Amino acid sequence: MSKPPIRHGHRPRQRRSTTSRRWHVSLAPKRDPAVPEPAMEGTPILEESPGDLGVLLWQSYRDVVLWGDSEPEHRTQLFAPGSLERREALIRGSNLVGEVRVAIELLTAALRESPPSKPAEIVYCCSRVAEWAAAAGKRYTAFAMALAAAGLEPNDAAIALRVGQYAASGRLFIAAEAWFRRVVGLGRRARDYASYADAWVELGRVCAARAALRPPTSLTIEIDPAQASIEEVNRHLDPRISPEIHSGADHAARARQCFITAARTARRHGMRTTGGEAYHELFLLAFAAGHFGIADRYAKKALRLLGKHHSRNPSLRHAYASLMLRHSENVVAAIQMLEAVLPSRRTTPERIETLLLLVEAAGRAKDEERFQKGWYDALSTIERLGESPAAARHLLSLAQVGMELGEETRAIHAARRAFSLAAHVRDHGLKDEVETFLARPRPGRAA
Question: d(Cα 377, Cα 2) in Å, to the nearest integer?
Fold first, then answer.
């Protein structure tokens, strides 16, 4: 009996394999290869916290690593008799208070319990200490304690995600990228799609920071150009971990692909907040690249998904108002959005940023009342910064806005105040900028 003919253009349906795919989980480093190796493991903890506090934190970190590297049956023999009393005396001398002291005390006792504690208890204490350290600006300490916790639960994607976030916050970009890629593998293998999607967002932020398109906007990435420029970071990137960096790959394109993957995963699994954060980052990338039509669509998606009460909503609405003002000429809508977002801008620099944009919008709309109110509100808010370089810089920005709007008298007054402040704080670069601004030819004045 002859076989039935196969119709042209159709392939016979192949049976789908029923074997589950084993997702590759990459290894992650315990330190950043771009940073010189310390003489002794964990010594940056001592540098961040001199005195008894640093010794306490360093010893706690080393105890957790030692406990995790030991076999369960040997853990009760790790610490000499009397070590608990000595550690408690060190805790009293460290002047720690509140939740972090409780976490250290619980950690000290749990490591010495017989029978041994469950790893989850140690992980909880390490996580609390890491959160405290991050809030206190002790970035390496936060990274080290999260790293110690991840060593006890190596297959937990959520714990690994925190390691990457603390690494990125401490500008340990190679380690951060490696940990985020590990989370991608762990999350996909365990079907932890929340950690999986968050890892793609964080990985995209690292790529965007390397692209130098914008300053990072979250807790997880902070770049200080005076301490570590993008060029300096890129020169030391390790091709063993990120070979695409040395092949000339486009960081912005990589960032965009990471955010798109996060947005698609979030949509597929109903994670509105993660999807909103991904679209927010895509908006910032498109805005920085000058793709304003695409940026507008991304901003609308992000606003819809994040909702009114998300912590990133005010900064997103501020940036979207800037887009409407400068590229869609929708001045009235921009004013309404800026006035609505102003009460949510909590810090002085944020309020100044929004007030400067509101002054520009009111000037373009020929709304004299709003312009005058915004101008004086901006001046009074800048005064809160005192005699500082930041105050001088904001005054120069206000002067530039005023000059563009034809408010020459106000602009010159603000610029002269900026000049005197720059001279007072000895910021010669800013002083030269103000001098150049004041010497610039203006309408009605001979050049």
Answer: 89
SS3 letters for 71-103?
CHHHHHHCCCCCHHHHHHHHHHHCCCCHHHHHH
Residue 393, in any domain of the structure: yes
- Asked if the structure places residue 269 within a domain, the reply is no
Considering the domain boundaries, does residue 403 fall inside one? yes
Q: How far is CA 429 from CA 118, 257, 398, 422, 425, in A?
A: 57, 38, 18, 9, 11
Residues 407 and 444: beta-carbon distance below 8 Å = no
Q: How many CB atoms lie within 10 A of CB 216?
A: 17
Each as own residue / partner, the long-range contacts of residues 210-213 (CB below 8 Å, 24 or more positions apart, any chain) are: 210/173, 210/234, 210/245, 210/251, 211/250, 211/251, 211/252, 211/255, 213/252, 213/255, 213/284, 213/285, 213/288, 213/289
297 inside domain: no
Burial class (CB in 10 A: 0-12, 13-18, 19+), 89: exposed
- Chunked into runs of 10 residues, the chain (447 residues) has average pLDDT values of 52 48 60 58 84 88 88 81 80 80 87 82 92 91 93 92 92 88 93 95 90 42 31 34 41 90 96 94 88 90 89 88 80 90 90 93 92 94 92 93 92 93 89 89 52
Distance CA 370, CA 197 (A): 43
Domain housing 419: 385-441
Tokens for 192, please give them: 């932890």
Angle between helix axes 272-289 and 193-211 (nearest 10 degrees) is 20
CB burial readout 304-332, b (16+ within 10 A) else e: ebbeeebebbbbbbbbbbbbbbeeeeebe
